[in-house]
Amino acid sequence: MDNSNSSPLPPRQQLAAPGKWPAVGECAALPTDGPWQITVCGAVAQSLDLSLAELQVFPHIHCQIDIHCVTRWSKLGVHFHGVSLAEILAVAAPTPAARFVSFVAHTARKHSTSLALADALALDTLIAWQCDGQPLEPSHGGPVRVIVPGRYFYKSLKWLRTIELLADDALGYWEREAGYHNIGDPWREERYIACNLTRQQLQIALSRRDFAGLNLLGLDARLHDLSGLNAHGALLRNADFRGSHLMDANFTEANLSNAHLGGAILCGARFMHADVEGADFSGADLRGADFTAASLLGTTFFTQESSAANPISAIIDASTTLPSAAVENLTPPQAEFVRASLTRPATPGR
User: Fold this and answer.
1) pLDDT digits over 65-87, tens only?
2) Which residues on adjacent β-strands are paired with residue 16?
3) What region does 12 belong to: left with phi over 0, alpha with psi -120 to 50, or beta?
4) CA neighbours within 13 Å on the CB side: how many for 34?
5) Under DSSP, is residue 336 helix (H, G, I), strand (E, B) or coil?
6) Cα dist from 291 to 26, 40, 119, 232, 301, whole Å
7) Helix (H) or strand (E) holding 85
8) Whole-model pTM above 0.85?
9) In Å, what is the CA distance from 142 to each residue of 5, 28, 135, 246, 295?
């Protein structure tokens, strides 16, 4: 897609705080007994086992890319240094059967992701060991990670150990377990796969007001009265609660990443230890809500696209619990809005 005449930010992304690169997901690889090694295998004529030193014998390239996280934060103009995937595959020689490439991490859950081989090459996929002139930090995938320009950053796998060429696609960890989109084009907002709930399952879940522990990816619950909802530990990524009544709802330890909560009544709602990364609370009533230990990367409390004279803002006051450590993870405009709102005297939210 040609974005040359458009904003540098894809739809509904916002810039991370200057100098910050949020560490998302797991922050460390499994320990290793010896030097780091990358295996190239599968549908190739020549399997390879490359140490980091051997990897660095390949021609080096630099690239500057914009990082776009699926949880709605972006970091622009990041410099990476490494070797192109194409250079490695020129030696491994994919067979005619190779149509997909899978990248596997050295983690306990063997995190992985995949791309169509043609896309991986067309996007100039990089195998990188430096960022902004410094070795990649372990929390950001060091010593070596994948960098896929033009895709949400979950496609840029950390702690790379295996490059496998496949005849048939294999969904990666986040695509399989979290419902992330298998292509992940940020300009098309390909964040999640479509919801697979049946109408009957949806009606049962709504009528009981008890989502505890359920996987309700993409739930459409707009304009519902769900006061007192029990959603403890529920998986509600990309759920739509816009305009719903959710007074005293329990979202403790729930995953609400990228959920739509604009205009919802959330007075007294509990979000303790919840993942609300990328969630949109614009216009929501959050008086008395508790976000203790919640993850707020990329969370929105007011709509920046609105005019300065009439923004669509969440209702937040001194009765809202938003710890300063969590607020620090917001983008600067969002953090400034929240801090100012928390100084307002508490008013009844019922």
Assistant:
1) 999 998 889 999 999 999 999 99
2) none
3) left
4) 5
5) helix
6) 22, 44, 40, 14, 13
7) helix 85-92
8) no
9) 34, 9, 7, 42, 23
